[in-house]
Amino acid sequence: MQAETTAAFIDGNIHRGFSSSKSMSTKPYKRYNGALLKTMQADEFASFIYTVNFSKSGKSIHYGVIPDIRQEQQKTPLFLSGSKLVTSESFEKLIREFHQSKQTSKTVLLKDISNVQKYISFAAILDSKSNSAGIVVVEVSNHQVSQLKEKLLESMLVTISLLFISLLVASIFFARKITGPFEQLTDAIERLIKNDFNFNLSLSGFGGFTYLAKQFNLMILKLQVSRNELVSTNKAYSRFVPHQILKLISPTGIKNTALGDCVEKEMTILFCDIRGFTSLSESMPPSENFSFINRYLKIMVPVINKYGGTIDKYMGDGIMALFPNSADHAVQAAVGMMETLDKYNEKLRQRNLPTVKIGLGLHTGKMMLGTVGTSSRMDVTVISDTVNAAARIEALTKTFHSPILISEELRMRLEHFDKKNLRFIATCFVQGKSKPVTLYEVFSQDTISVRKEKLHNQNGMIKAWQHYKKGDDERALMLYQRLMEKSPSDKALLALIEVVQTGRL
Fold this sequence. Notes:
15 strands; five-stranded antiparallel sheet; Alpha-Beta Plaits; alpha+beta; 15 helices
């Protein structure tokens, strides 16, 4: 390449004039000599450049342009000895073959007179008629070629290293462009698994995956809407499901509750009923009936819940509640319901509205809780004579004019309730029980004076009932009448007198 480039800049017509020793003193010769010298000095690999000229016959080499600075130092196949051009036979053969071949350039490997291998390149110098006017010769030693190879290899290694680093950086950059969005998606999926739906993916970090992020955000939005609808639906359904009772049947959750699941447990059951509701409802339009009941339940149910009770069912104006943990809680709830009703009635009186009266019957015993129905429609129910007994006790509150009646079984299980606020009423048979049930009135909600009066009458009431059970109706009636004279406002005494007189209970 260097030989061809140098040959292209040489004027072949002038170069043909360098054919004798006289021409070496001319200005053109010196100018070409200087140009070749500069070309050689600019060569990083210290190549030796010179030109040769042929005789007119083209069979022998005449004078050439050899840079003076290297003539004696450079051991070339061609050198000057005085004014005579001296060449080696092999070199002259090569250059003659190149001249006769009419080639424009050629490179060969040749040993010089010191037996050192060199790469020699030839390039034809052409005149204005494109005829050969000489040859440019560029010599590069094997050592210089090795240096060139080393530098080329070093350059290639540097280039490859830079290319590898560039590719690595580019790979990391593009990999980050790809993995970044998927890392965000992974984090988003983990949040969804944890039931966190209140977020959106930022579109700015997704690059070419923006459409994917938009679709993911749309999915989250739909999930949020579906989840909110599901939560609202579950909340709505939960108002119709007795969750606390289901927990007793299936502690592991409602999803694991199957048809026929049941459990036996001792509990206290409370029945509550509005007195004279039938006649009261007849004076109201249908819509007002429901409004009235719901206002009443709104004040009663929280009291039951406060003391650990749970509503088993609503029966029109009646309430059936279960207390699985404590008999004391059941009695406290009954007393609290009476106190709450007194406050409610006071508001009704202020508005000149009829007041509400209720009766509460409570009983304790073992009962079966379980699911009945079909696989498509199940319900929770309580199966036990305890339920029937409690309902009958509640009905007897009308007979004995006592707002709260409890059974002997319940009284025996009381641990904290003050039993001084209880009094014996009667022993009688109730539906569903083969043995008689002993009834006690709870009067802790009464005024202090009434409570003292009822406590004072307790012994006399017990003696009077004992005489009645023995068949001594006259003695029993006399004792009740004496108590009635002292406590004319005690309606339970009046009811007991009626029982003795009629013999019906």
